[in-house]
Predict the 3D structure of the following.
Amino acid sequence: MEITKYFSNAPEDLNLKNAVDELSLLKVYAFNSYFNGDASYTGDVNEGCTYRRDKDAGIDGVYINQNLGDDAIECLHSYYLGNNPFALKTVFNWIDKICAELTDINGGKFLGNQEAGNLLNRYLFEFEIKKVIIRIVTDYLPDDKTKYEIKKKIENHDVSISGLEVSATIDFGDDVVSTIDSNQAPYDYVEKGKLIIDEPNNFLKYKDHSVVCNISAKSLKKLWDSEGKKGLLAMNLRYYIKSINIDSKIEDSIQNDNENFWYLNNGIIIVCDDYKIIGNELRLNHFSIVNGGQTTRMIGTVPFDNDFFISCKVVKNVFETSNDKNTFISKVAEASNTQKPIKAKDIIANRIEQRNLKTMMSENHVFIEIKRGEKCDPNLYTEPWQKTKNNELAQDLFAFVYMQPGPARNSISSILSSNDKYNTIFKNHDYSFAFLKDILFLEKLYKEYQKKVKKDYEKDPSLSVKNGLVIQGLHYCLAVIGYCLKLNYNKEFRNDIYKYRNDKTKYELFSSELAFMHPFIDSNTTYKQFKASAFELFDFVFGQFIIPQFNLAKINNPATVYSNFLKANTGFDLIRQMINGVTFDSKQNYLIDGVAKFFVKIDQKTENDNIDRYADYCQKNKKIQAKNFSGFELSPQDTALRNDLMIYRLNYSTAKSISENKIFSDKAIDKMLIAKPVNKEELGKLIPATTCAYCGDDILKIIEKYL
């Protein structure tokens, strides 16, 4: 297998021109495995690469794998052989070395590759990811039996570390190539294929379009070998999710008890456009397995000698339009995938607003991934802004529209799994395509801006603060731009912000409202034409807003680091205060105008439309909640909660001999009744920081009783 041809075809920004094959293998694998071969993410590939070959060599790359049941940190090691022999002992040495590094950092120290240590620190402690996969990536290509034996030995190798869920695995040369090929020519289904059934014409028919039959495991294994990464599981809700308990039982059944496999396994479900049963052949057209992906993968990869049979339901899709077909497939997949937890991204994939979003994007020639494993054809979507994911768009909107850049960067899983946040972003508001397109312009051009700033920093080390903030500052940057444009485009919004700027509860409710939904980048300007303006805009945002606020935070607390500053909303709230002070108190517009000059001016009709739409949204979604509970008739539940909080405050103030109001005010009680926080991060926005630190756990327990 000539894997090096893929190195020369890699994007120029991966910097592989004079790289050794081992480094090229690492970057090409990471680029295709974690970023779907999307050239917008070459900066992320380079940032995660920690390759070096010295006494500290161990972890060659650190990346987040979002394609599993739970996000996992992947620690890669590249093992390029060329014509050299494969040595399993060497692999185990590297795995042990990486385990030692993980143990060190989990214990609060790290003496190895500092670049890898910084990334691990960031993911382990800031994002609180505790699942770690040690993955060896190699060009070695043994036969199937040897592959299985090596993989089993590696997966059974002891990598246990207290406080972490660690596993080890290996990807061989054909795994790497299949991953690359699936990105270069993505498959939505298998064009044609066949399976063998147990006896000629032995099937149970349902109406005129679906059947249940028993298929040969060896024929399924053969199909896996040819189509396993070419659409065979494309319609499933998710990628294969490794589960030691389930996998080991299936594996044991395949190898030691396959005569009873039919009884012990639920089988598989296939959706197809058409099928025929001729003799003992089940012939399928335009098909994919929508349930039973784990069973299929295990049969495809676990060696066995004797054939056995599996229950198989074949469902013919009788719908004609693409939208109706996709809806039907999603319903079948969601209804039948119940045996293991599904990630939030997969759960929402079938919701009507997600399907409508995908349809709108598709009609405007933009690919949006709403389900893990969907692949984008790079030949059809050539511009960076034409490719996105619903979770990334959710992060962008949560920052740009809803003024939550810290949570947007730090808590994507909670955005999709929280009904309140999900409904706020996707359900309660509609967005025009033109508006979303401009958001995508900003996001993708920002990724190019990151590369530029990094190159500038490599030439001029004095730009270290700017580079450090830009690396992780996308959502802060979007939030600043979004806030300034809201103030610029909507007089009613601006009036409310002025009116409520000293009332934190109402200010937060109104400032996070959708104030406009029209395009804000000139529609005649192409992505490439806007690039220079975007870079100038980003320079202005960092120079005037983000860097000065970070420097102030650093003065107040010298321990402040870029990642901690950007993962919370505290810094952004202070940026908004600065914007409000300059705009409302000093009566100066240079900050708003400095952002607005890069975008379109609007006419009076558009401004009036913005005011009307904003007023309608506020009335429907916010103003009902914006009341202060003082003077209102409370529900019995809220009355009881208020009383408990007041009693706690009285007892604590008596015990500590401090004023009740210093613990938390009556207005803070109103805020807690409205928000009902469930963690200290949410509570800290409502009460003094000292109170949150010393009394937070007690207060949360009180609130929890009334949820």
About this structure: The CA atoms of residues 406 and 566 lie 6 Å apart.
